[in-house]
Amino acid sequence: MTGQWERLGEAGGIEAYVHRPPGEVRGAVVVCSELYGVNAYVRGTCAELAAAGYVALAPDYYWRNARRTELGYSAEEREQGLVLMRALDRDELVADASAALAAARREAGERGVAFLGLSMGGHIAVRAATELRFELAAVFYPGWLLNRGFPLVGPVPPLETSARIAEGGAFLLGFRGELDHIIPAEEWEQAEQRLTEAKVPHDLVTYPGARHGFACADRPADYDPQSGADAWRRVYAALAEHL
């Protein structure tokens, strides 16, 4: 099967790019994109998840300001993405994540649901875990977990309410590169401490020598195939365990 855009609710509301597996459904994954939108890399990620048996849904979180955004990785396109990201509102993101979760539950049947977050989408996935109930949040280099600076963060960064993740029941699997310019080592250590204190089941992994975006082959300056392959191995193991 191939992926396609579908409405998640009322006409004129949020859409998601949906890719379904050809055979048995092992669960559903909400894929939360980088600031570049639901681009070729995100759609390819959905296809890979579907090939492994998971219904993959990539919500268009920018829909209120720009429909079906798909940017490349040039400096100019990054600036376009930053403009769109700065317009995101925390409460609207939670509402959109809730709509995506409801659709994913319908697709998953008796199996579970995971949120997979990439950079900005990692933040969205962790925020969703503080407000919604699902089985797994797997996040690649998630930003602003313990600091403010963008409207999508709001007055309270998500890991300041780590106890709510524990209440929601999600296992949190996180990946960061040692040379990540957005997530310093100190912040990752603080995230580990907050999650441990709140008794959130989790595993935070740091890859030596890896940069922000290390798992994306479409970003050759940052891509680290060995680290990316190991992270994806861990993601699929977690999906098998928790969904």
From TrEMBL:
Superkingdom of this protein's organism: Bacteria
The Dienelactone hydrolase domain, residue ranges: 14-242
One Pfam match: DLH
Protein's recorded name: Dienelactone hydrolase domain-containing protein
Organism: Streptomyces incarnatus
